[in-house]
Amino acid sequence: MSVDGGVRQLRTEADEPGWEVDPDDEWGVAVIATVGRQLRLRREAVGMRAGDFGRAVGYGEDLVYKIEGGKRIPRPEYLERADEVLGAGGLLAAMREDVAKVRYPKKVRDLAQMEARAVEIGVYENSNVAGLLQTPEYARALLGSWQPAYTPEDLERLVAARIARQAVYERSPAPALGFVLEEGTLRRKVGGTMVRRQQFERLLEVGELSSVTLQVMPMDSAAHPGMSGRIELLKFEDGTAVGRSDGAFNGRPVTDLRQLRILELRYGTIRAQALPPGESLALIDHMLGET
Questions:
Q1: What is the pLDDT of residues 18-75, one digit of tens each?
Q2: Strand pairing partners for 11?
Q3: 3-state secondary structure labels for all residues of 135-194
């Protein structure tokens, strides 16, 4: 029963698809196991049974046991409510940040960690706007077009993970960021008119940052090395680097100097053939006016 005398519908596992722990994600498994253990210890410390606790937070007893056993990822609101019910003084609610990271796909989390350490990032994208430049609305429209379709919750999780990577712009000192986008990609109608306008405005905003070089490869350009796929290069403070290209080395990340030189040669050639930054921003502004 709820406090006002009505019947409360307790959440079950069926109400929360997609919140399982990926067994191949060792870090995620360890985080959720630790969070679950802390929840159980807190509940037992105040002498509350799982069923009573579940009713207090709006969850079924079975789901409470799975969260405490590290089998399910708790929602942020679950941790907040548990903190209140168990009088944890904010300690349980403070776990939300690490729990949120577990919800991000492991490969996205690994990429975000590398981007957070990089002092220089170079990206050529030939199929869509680069993830570090996307608005949430554009990312949602883009990811929502993929097949097989994501569940609404998985879609929001992927969008959140992509946008979270953009914390790289808030670093001080800021890393040097370079982007080359295809004009044809910018003209593709991803989302509605407002989605495209907001994306163009975001590109113009980011392109004005002193740490960012944004270029557009015009549609009437000659053939170039990027036509085999996207390229990403990340360089770190200790002199090491990592790169990846869809069209080289089977798409695997590489750190070997000879392989990196090949990617740097291709990326450098692409930048040389693209429009200069000023002309690129003028073209984006023109496309905004056309939208």
A1: 677 778 778 888 999 999 999 999 999 999 999 999 999 999 999 999 999 998 989 8
A2: 59
A3: CHHHHHHHHCCCCCCCCHHHHHHHHHHHHHHHHHHHCCCCCEEEEEEEHHHHHCCCCCHH
Q: How far apart are CA 201 and CA 208, in angstroms?
A: 11
Residues in CB range of 199: below 8 A, 6 or more apart: 129, 134, 135, 137, 138, 190, 191
* Structure-token pair, residue 222: 């000659």
Tell me the C-alpha distance between 126 and 143, whole Å. Answer: 16
Q: Can you list the alpha helix ranges (DSSP code H) found in 245-276?
A: 257-273
- Token output for 203: 């590109």
Spatial CA neighbour of 290 closest among 224, 190, 223, 200 = 200
Residue 259 phi/psi, 5-degree rounding, is -70, -40
Alpha-helical segments (H) within the chain: 26-45, 50-57, 61-68, 76-86, 96-103, 106-117, 136-143, 152-164, 183-187, 193-207, 257-273, 277-290
What is the per-residue pLDDT for 230? 94
Residue 192 tokens read as 């509605």
Instruction: Report residue 18: phi and psi, to 5°.
Output: 85, 5
Matching residue, tokens 């291709």: 266
Query: What end-to-end distance do the CA atoms of the chain give, in Å?
Result: 53
Q: What is the model's pTM? A: 0.70
- Residue 201's pLDDT is 98
Return all residues near 257 (Cβ < 8 A) that are at least 6 apart: none
Contact 10, 54 (CB under 8 A): yes
Q: How many CA atoms lie within 13 A of 114 on its CB side?
A: 19
